[in-house]
Amino acid sequence: MNIINYLKQARRSANLTLQDMAYLLDMDFSNLSKYETGKKQPPVRVIIAYHIITKTPLKKLFKYSLLTMIDAVNSKTTSLISQLEEEMTTPKLKKRIVALYEVLNNIGCLQDISEKEQDGK
């Protein structure tokens, strides 16, 4: 299930119509419809509003955005480490590389949490 399904499911679970939700968010009905049908990516403001209005956990609403961001940051971090390790080593450069490895460690922890949540659904 992607973010689109979660938005629509959250709204319906709260017994709100698309018109009601559009009114509460002070936005055009047709734009909100595009978010719920996947024609447009919802902005963070809309996702947070769905959380507030429907009490749907942010983790659930941001799940797929989070996984995409984790992959992107992991790739960029690995690439930067490779570039820096090819340069002449200085104390300052070593600190940067250590910090980047810590970023990879943090990402690994987030991936573990995400995988556990997927298994536990």
TrEMBL record:
All copies of domain HTH cro/C1-type, residue ranges: 7-61
Domain of life of the native organism: Bacteria
A Pfam short name: HTH_31
InterPro entries hit by this protein: Cro/C1-type_HTH, Lambda_DNA-bd_dom_sf
PROSITE patterns in the record: HTH_CROC1 (PS50943)
One example GO MF annotation: DNA binding
Protein's UniProt name: HTH cro/C1-type domain-containing protein
Lineage, uppermost ranks: Bacteria, Pseudomonadati, Bacteroidota, Flavobacteriia, Flavobacteriales
